[in-house]
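Supplementary notes (optional reading)

For those who missed the lab, this is the record we used. Protein: Glutathione S-transferase. Length: 192 residues.
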Amino acid sequence: MQLLLNQTSPYARSARVTALEAGFGERLALVWSDPWNEDAQLLAANPANKVPVLITDEGIALSETLLICVHLHQLGGGAALAAERLQLAGLGQGLIDAAFGTVIARKHGGAGQDGSVLGARRLAAIERLLARLEEHSERNAEDLDFSHYLVAVGLDYLSFRLPEIDWSGRTRLVAFHRRLMARPSFAATTFQ
C-alpha cells in the first residue's frame, strides 16, 4: 500500500495514524506529495489534488480521509462501526475541516477573513465542536479506533496552527489529547 501525504495535513496525519494503529506500518509506503503545486503523481491518483490518497495493494486510489480510515479499520479487522463511533468520527472530521478552512483562508486572504461570514461560521463551529467533544471525550475511551484518532489530530492541529484558540480549560479533552499524543503512532507523525 502507498499513502500520498504531506507533513502538515491533518487529513493525511489522520490516515497515517489510523494505518499505524491498524498494524499497516510495515506495509505502508509513504509518498510525500505537494498538493499546492502540480504534483503529477498526486494528480494521477486524485484529480482533486488533495492528500491523503491511499493506493491499495490492488492499485485502487482511495481519497477522502474518512473513507480511507474506514477502509483501514475494516482491513485491519476492526470492530463493526456503531453509529456512536461514526458520530465521533464526524465530530473529529468537522473540527479538522473548520480548523483547516480557517488556516487556508488566513493564508490566502489574511487574518481579516475571520470577520467574514464564512470565517465567523468556521470559528463558531470550532467552539461548538470543542464543547461537544468535551462531552464525548470519556465515551469508549479505552476501545480506541479511527474516530478517536480524528479527534486527537484535530486537537493537535488546533494547537499547531491556531494556538490562539485556547481549549486548555476543557480538562477532559486535554487529558484525552495527552493520552493519545503519547501513543507511538502520534509520536511518529507529529506536525512539522
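If you only remember one thing from this example: The first strand starts at residue 2 and ends at 5.
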